[in-house]
Design brief:
elongated, about 180 residues, alpha+beta, 5 strands, five-stranded mixed sheet, single chain
């Protein structure tokens, strides 16, 4: 039991250290646009993270003033796996357009600079770093979209066949 408590403490300490490292480094950074935003690392809101081994912390550009509708989740940090995954500007913009039907109010030059500096910072700490591009998000979404559209086509075909059968039955019944 003592070993588990030490392991949990080690993960918790590593998580706090990574969060502090990122938030301290980017504290002076303010993203401009319609709303000013700052870099924050948010812990998962769950009962248990398996002793920290399943904890993925969100990297969020939080709106000054606290309005959560203007926050932008741009990636995650997995301390247990020592990995960070960030969305590219194109990926963020694509997701924003899908959800809100308008362009992202964030300057690409500011965001790309942030991602580059975060990559250098975390790789120096031994983290694997990946940038997810819009094409990768589209490819992940495509199989689900094809499945849904195929199901709809099968339903429509079944409906047409059912109507034809009912029509034939009525036609023969009236003769």
């Amino acid at each position: 039991m003592t070993y588990e408590r030490n392991a949990i403490t080690a993960f918790a300490q590593a998580t706090v250290a990574a969060k502090d490292l990122i938030e301290t480094k980017f504290a002076p950074t303010c993203f401009t646009g319609a709303v000013a935003r700052r870099v924050k690392v948010d812990a998962p809101v769950v009962e248990s993270t398996g002793g920290g081994k399943q904890a993925r912390e969100s990297i969020v550009l939080k709106a000054d003033g606290g309005d959560p509708t203007h926050n932008i989740a741009c990636g995650f940090l997995d301390v247990g796996l020592r990995a960070c995954e960030m969305r590219s500007y194109a990926a963020l913009n694509m997701l924003h357009r899908q959800r809100f039907n308008n362009a992202l109010d964030l300057y690409q030059s500011e965001y790309d600079k942030f991602v580059g500096e975060l990559k250098v910072l975390l790789e120096a700490e031994g983290f694997a770093f990946k940038v997810v591009e819009a094409e990768e998000l589209r490819a992940k979404a495509a199989p689900g979209m094809q499945k849904t559209s195929g199901s709809g086509a099968m339903f429509a075909l079944g409906l047409v066949v059912a109507l034809i059968v009912v029509g034939l039955i009525v036609l023969f019944a009236l003769r």
